[in-house]
Amino acid sequence: MTVSEIVQDDFLHSVLEVSTLTRDQCMAYFDVIEAPSDAGPGPATMSGKKAHLQLRKQHQLLHSYLSQLRGLSRDAIVRVRDAKQTTADARQEVDELHLHLQNLYYEQRHLRQAITACEGYDHKYQRLPLKSVDDFLQQHPERAEDDENALMIARIHEEYTQREALEQARQGLLKKKQSLMAENKKRREDLASLDRDLEKFMDAAKPIQKLFETDR
What we know:
Blueprint: H1 3-6, H2 10-34, H3 41-119, H4 133-139, H5 148-215
Helix pairs in contact: 2-3
């Protein structure tokens, strides 16, 4: 595989082309320098002038190629700097995206742990003596289309309503009990007071009883 087939960038192709032309021009310039000159007074002078002109022409052409090559070299340096900056910016963006992705993974793992903990939590409502779903739906057929969560909330609400009613009834019975206890206490106190009065009356009647007994 040739270099031109490996290199795909148009700018690098132009650099390779100018480099090849510069190399060929250098070889041509050296050929002119190393070419032997003809001897002789008249023709030698003419041949020397031609050789000098040809050497000057080749030198100018070589200088032109070298100028193009230096210009391409400067452009290549600028392109390399731009490519480095572009690469650095892209790397920074990739690093930021990677960091953001890591944060998302961490948040996902945290949420999964929280969900697992919630699913495994021993909720108090699970220990409530609720009616079975079948019994509840039999009493409330309008709830037949509710999902599991809505049914659970409805069953808990019904249990709460029934317990609230029972608590109110218990409070009413407790008040009635306290009232009866207070009434019984008052009656016992009245009976105790009556017993004391009766004892006093009997104590007061003893002299009279003795008097009747004496008269007999």
